[in-house]
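The data layer described in this paper is built around a simple, fixed record for each protein. Such a record has a labelled line for the sequence and another for the backbone structure tokens. For reference, a complete record is included directly beneath this paragraph.
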Amino acid sequence: MKKEDLRSSQGCGGITDRGCRARGPQLILGLSVILGITHSSGQSQSGVDADSGRQARNGLVRRRARLHGVPASGGVETASFPNWHSSDSLSPISRWSPGMEFRILFPSDNPPLAVLVAARISGVAFSPDATLSSGSPPMIVLPDGLKLKGAFVLLRYIGRISSIAEFYERGPFESGKIDEWLEYVATFASGSEFQGACNYVDQFLQQHTFLVGNNLSIADIAVWSALAGAAQRWESLRKSKKYQNLVRWFNSILDAYEPVLGELIATYIGKKSSAKAATKVNEHQVSNATPVNAGSEVDLPYAEVGKVRLRFAPEPSGFLHIGHSKAALLNQYFADRYKGEVILRFDDTNPDKESNEFVDNLLKDVQTLGIKYKAVTYTSDYFQQLLEMAEKLIREGKAYVDDTPRDQMREERMNGIESKHRNNTVEESLTLWMEMIAGSERGKMCCLRGKLDMQDPNKSLRDPVYYRCNDTAHHRIGSTYKLYPTYDFACPFVDAVEGITHALRSSEYHDRNDQYHWIQTDMGFPKVHIYEFSRLNLVYTLLSKRKLLWFVQNGLVEGWDDPRFPTVQGIVRRGLKIEALIQFILEQGASKNLNLMEWDKLWAINKKLIDPICPRHTAIIEERRVLLTLSNGPEDPFTRVIPKHKKCEAAGIKVTTYTKRVWIDYADAELISANEEVTLMDWGNSIVKNIEKDQQGNVISLTGVLHLEGSVKTTKLKLTWLPDTDELVKLSLVDFDFIITKKKLEDDEDFVDVVNPCTKKVTSAFGDSNMRDLKRGDILQLERKGYFRCDVPFGSPTEPIVLFAIPDGKSQPVMRFAALNGKH
């Protein structure tokens, strides 16, 4: 099908400055991303405002006739926009006229691509507005303020007002087939069904030019958008010869409207799209970005290269944990990708919990993560400006001082009951505000609240607290202030003042996004884009700093860097390479799925990084170790120099001593049968002749002969061993368990009830003499025992080297230490 044919089949007059006069719907990535659909509000997909929906249905017959240019009495007219300024009783939502411009609102993380494409190619005037909170359905707002909601509703509405003949409104059967295709589009959102959907459409297009009838319809635009939104997955199929009919159809639409489609996809999908002109249309869009994982990228909506400023804003009330790390690394990823910058801001608004110790350790942790920040700022840098802003809002009637007791205030907010002080005069609030600033007894009874909407279903908008009094000295500025701003008040202010373009927030703050933007609007600032990602939740793990502090204060751990803790310092001390943490987090991208993740995947990534390079050493468990005497072994010990890692020269070399008597683990000794040939690793074969046991049947010694000409391929047992010399070093092998015994705590469950009573196991062992050279932080493998990190290096022959066991990603029972006694 030629470009001219496609346009002539619709009566399209070519591409204008508003785009080609054709029309199409929206499906973007995933079911919600492809269609911009949400069910979180509890509304149906056809979530039209009640009045406008009823009015639209009442005028359906008249609109259909006018839309097709066919009067009710018959005859044919030239197709044109319907004239809805007639005398029928339709509301302004139905009174459409050419040149009228409406707004299309949607969340920045879920633009309704098909709706936007349909409007542009139809020549419908609109302005995009990506200020809705994440999860909200897309919406059209007409000049008179009336609204339509829901991706399907918007798509059909634009189809009805489009100048393209039969873009949606057709006869009953074909209109029904269009609706059928719109429902089918959801199939493309399922990863397992994507290729099946492609195959189905490909077969259908064997004998059809369009999906419905002989004209382009919103059904074509919907399916096309679903494929374009699938990005690289579709691109790989498109380049193959598997779906020739589907590719032909896809390319014909792309070629016909490439400038329009290229611009929209470059804006809302980015480099992942298949539009050939995408990167040419908007030179500010990202073209070559570092992928988050193999073959995929995460986009930051409305980001322009060189104009992105982000902030990572931890509270200095604890050490950085793995959950914070996700936020920090995503900020760094987007800053790198868009050639922007990251501000490291300490959100120090709660002097009761904060300290300089935490600031210092957070700086250390951020450096460990490799975060490259432009500047370090503190919310406390803006305390005076925040006070001035608070007074400004009081004077404008947007905030008031309230002395309602805290419990009563909480109950009133839950029930939508206004405070008795809500409608106090500005003078009354200013008087109490001065008392708060002075820290007087009267002032301490009060708080400052924003005057938002006490009836809003979103309870975060029910007059949140902006300021509270607190006599505690601040760790940076001492006792200068007697009151401090809340996070809800300070964050939108400082973000705006520091010029933050995108605020990355975990989805736990989703209900507060509207509050964030409301407060910025009241302050007179433009809205900062919010980008949501899911909080990183891991099994058997507490991420609450309050709960972690409880373990520290009760002596159940050594401190915030305890290897049982999910802090950055804790997991690094346990043996995690920071590269593994970065890979683990970025592989998830900016997912909003609230999944409870296993630690196994993280440790498996870590193993892949350390196994190829870490040196190999040997250890024998001290308890019940067994001496093997080799009758034909060397009378005098001798040494050989061998590599620490047979496949990694950079791991270095070690000296191995060979003696007539060698130590082996008891667990190995009890598996050996008399006259069995075994392999002594890095030496050769030996035949065990005699096995001596005590009265209880425990093996206490072995005798045998070297059989170095024997083949190691024929032996069942490959044994680690150590020479019987005074050069061996003492080892403490330490393994850890989770600090709680339940995978996931319920909301009403007290973590104290599931504290694991046994989380640390220490095993005494001996190691080869080369381990004297280990330094703190070195990672090694004890052959046949696993991977370890050196926590305490060699100091003296009487003090053991302390090695922490590193998990390798293989699932182990949580209660594997339950038989041991003791709290630690």
About this structure: Confidence is low (pLDDT under 50) at residues 1-95, 271-296, 813-824. The domain at 103-268 is CATH 1.20.1050.130 (Glutathione S-transferase Yfyf (Class Pi); Chain A, domain 2).
